[in-house]
Structure formats: structure tokens, C-alpha cells
Write a structure and sequence with these properties.
Blueprint lengths: L1 E5 L10 H10 L2 H10 L5 H11 L3 E2 H9 L7 H10 L3 E9 H10 L7 E10 L5 E7 L14 H8 L5 E6 L13 E4 L1 H10 L4 E2 L3 H16 L10 H11 L3
Parallel strand pairs: 1-3, 1-6, 3-4, 6-7, 7-8
Antiparallel strand pairs: 2-5, 4-5
Helix pairs in contact: 1-2, 2-3, 5-9
């Protein structure tokens, strides 16, 4: 079976909603936390706690208005239809917050794709429409703090040994999971990283590009050509090392 794992912020959405949200409601101090995290000075969890601590007295209506204005890749809906037609299972893996993922996906009629993300609770203040942010992290990894929601663990847990694993991403939190994918679609920062790490990938600008490439790969698989969908040796070895506790 083919399993597709998809980043959310900046991949499905037009911009990194999480970063934009915290800067919008927490101020420019949140940019400092983001930079500290990307420079590996603080963990992902510590970054989120710091950002949420900056978000006080948030007007819930304004928050939702901000989220309702977020755009997604216009070709994503057709990509999802393509997956359904071809019995491909998509999952969304995000190191963002489930509150805004759920709202944005539902705004665009996307209700059937399973997603995994960090949890954000909006705590009412004095019975008003003002709220504070309370984050929690149900999907951390016990040995790695690069991401608060470990995408690698989801990929390996949700996939069987003979599944073809496809990963689609663009940014910092996508660096780890590409090492465990058989096929990678990359753009922006992730594309640069894959080149540096010698991880083979297909470049894309939008989901229409991915759909076209997958149509070719599926045709190659049906005709049993050598360069169709297949397992990637390096990904298999990386997964084996995880399961063996390496």
C-alpha cells in the first residue's frame, strides 16, 4: 500500500500559519523564540511554551477571523481526490497546533484526512471572549526534542514494512522524516536540506506538480519499470535502526 504523509504549514497552507499566528497575537518576541529553536538553542516544546506565554488576553473572535482568512494550495483538493481514486492513504503530520489545523481544514471541506499535531486549548478568561493559550504535547519522542510532534514516529507506526512511504514537506520540521521516506517531495528549505544530505527528492511548487509526478510513478509501477514506485534502501536502513533501538 502507498502511504502519503503531508506537512501542513507552508505545504498545504500558503504560509506558515503557526509562525504567523504567534507573531500576530504574541508579538515580535515570538520571532526570537522561533529563531532560537531553529538554531537549536531551545527545544520545540520550550519554544511553544514561550510563544504561548506571550499570547495573553486574546480575542477569540479575532483569532478565528485570522484563521478563516488562511488560504490553502488551490490544487490540494484535487490531489486528495487523486489519492482516493488510487487507494492511496494520506495523513497530515504537523508540528503546529491542532486548533488551527482543524478549523482551516474544515473551512475547506477537508474532514476525512487523519491529522496529528500538538494540542492547543483556549482557556476562557473571566467568562469573556478573551482567552489564553494552553499547549500540550501528546506526541513527543522520549529521546529527540527537535520536534514537539514526532513525525518520524507517526510515519513508522502507521506504515507496514512493505508500504511505500511518500513524504511531502518544505521546512525545518520535515528534515527528520525525509530520511525514512521512500519518495520525497520537497520545496524551499527542505529542498536545500535534501541536497545537502544527499536525500533524493522531487521538486514541487504545488500539489498539482505532485499529482502529475505520482501519475507517472503509478504508471511505471503498473508496467513494472525499474524507476517506478519502490522502496528506498537508505530509508529501510534508517527505519530498521529505529526499531532496533540504534
Amino acid at each position: 500500500m502507498i502511504k502519503i504523509f503531508i506537512d501542513f504549514d507552508g505545504t498545504i497552507t500558503r504560509q506558515d500559519v503557526g509562525d504567523a499566528l504567534f507573531v500576530r497575537f504574541g508579538g515580535k518576541k515570538c520571532l526570537d523564540y522561533i529563531n532560537e529553536y531553529r538554531n537549536e538553542k531551545i527545544s520545540a516544546v520550550d519554544c511553544f511554551y514561550s510563544e504561548c506565554n506571550e499570547c495573553i488576553d486574546i480575542d477569540k473572535n479575532k483569532l478565528n477571523e485570522f484563521l478563516d482568512a488562511q488560504e490553502i494550495d488551490s490544487s490540494f483538493i484535487e490531489f486528495y481526490s487523486f489519492c482516493k481514486r488510487n487507494d492511496i492513504m494520506p495523513f497530515i503530520l504537523s508540528d503546529g497546533m491542532d486548533y488551527y489545523l482543524d478549523r482551516i481544514l474544515k473551512n475547506h471541506g477537508i474532514t476525512e484526512i487523519p491529522f496529528f499535531a500538538n494540542h492547543l486549548e483556549l482557556t476562557p478568561l473571566d467568562g469573556s471572549l478573551k482567552v489564553s493559550f494552553k499547549p500540550s504535547f501528546p506526541f513527543t519522542d522520549e529521546t529527540c526534542d527537535r520536534c514537539a510532534c514526532c513525525k518520524r514516529n507517526h510515519m513508522l507506526t502507521l506504515s507496514a514494512e512493505d508500504d511505500i512511504i511518500i513524504y511531502i514537506g518544505e521546512g525545518y520540521s520535515d528534515r527528520c522524516p525525509v530520511h525514512y521516506a521512500d519518495i520525497v517531495f520537497a520545496k524551499d528549505e527542505l529542498q536545500t536540506y535534501c541536497r545537502q544530505q544527499n536525500v533524493s527528492y522531487f521538486e514541487y511548487r504545488g500539489f498539482a506538480d505532485i499529482t502529475k509526478r505520482l501519475e507517472i510513478l503509478l504508471d511505471n509501477k503498473q508496467s513494472k519499470k525499474h524507476f517506478g514506485l519502490k522502496k528506498r534502501r537508505q530509508a529501510q536502513l534508517a527505519a530498521r535502526e529505529v526499531f532496533l533501538g540504534g
